[in-house]
Amino acid sequence: MNRQRILIDGDPGVDDAIALLLALASPELDVVAVTTVAGNVPWERTFDNGRRVVALAGRKEVPVFRGCTGPLLGPVLRGKYSGAGGLGGSLLPESDAPVQTAHAVDVITATLTEAAAAGAPITVCTMGPLTNLAVALARDPGIARGMSRIVAMAGAFLAGGNRTPSAEFNVLADPHAAEIVLRAGVPVVLAPLDVTFQALATPARVTALRARGGRVTALAAELITFYDRNDPARYGEPGGPLHDPCVIAYLLRPDLFGGRPAHVAIELQGSLSYGQTVGDFHGVTGKAPNATVLQQLDAPGFFDLLWGRLAAL
Ligand code: BDR
Ligand code: CA
User: Fold this and answer.
1) Residue 9's domain is classified under what CATH number?
2) What is the pLDDT of residues 213-244, one digit of tens each?
3) How far is the CA of 170 from the centre of ligand 1 (A)?
4) How many domains does the chain have?
């Protein structure tokens, strides 16, 4: 099988953890590195959580690296689920996966430089604030040649924001980094809240996950149930949205998604709209599209894929 080489950067976090499990369970994907960044929880925790997830997947050979400790500019934001270390306290056992000492930015730079030199650019998946990738690009813009595309859980368009009325967490937590990434000249696919809000882990779907059996499904269901606890009140919908797994599902089954090209820029000035992703879907700016913005999800197909892969781990 011709496996797709990917680097995953994120801030685990429950939905990041489920996304990592999906990637590690998928034989079509070759996860060359997991880089972590401050976001949902501080950098030490996202690093530790990443190591716990690769151990849970039985994939301790996949290296996990620590990354940037906060945004390029602006205040430090934490996720809504930061209370219990980002992964429901002690739900996941401590990990004996290797403690890598290299920094995420160096690893991203080296990986992409090597991919560019080999003429074999890779996919970079992001699931948290974009600080690590932006710093690597600012230090060496040439690494853009090592990326065939960036698939990012980031932004909100018609759906509105989840941390302000207009901004989504991963962008708001480092809007300048998001702007740097969008300007890098690499094809970008955005999975914004518009599509991830359709990936609702309803109680009936979580029950269906438990019924699949397998080594990690009970624990995954516990994590999702912990994560779910505020969302029904917040969104008026049953179940929490599994944002980050949409990134990996898109790699595996792009046919489950619908989207449109747009030029996307980040609002860096507005007081009410700071961190908003502004999409030009109608070409009114005359700027060429720099992103494909995902908008529709075949939710039953998505959960069938996700639950099936988790059950096979
Ligand atoms: C994003 O913010 C984080 O809380 C989640 O892990 C996801 O990446 C959703 O806005
Ligand atoms: Ca995340």
Assistant:
1) 3.90.245.10
2) 999 999 999 999 887 655 555 666 678 899 99
3) 6
4) 1
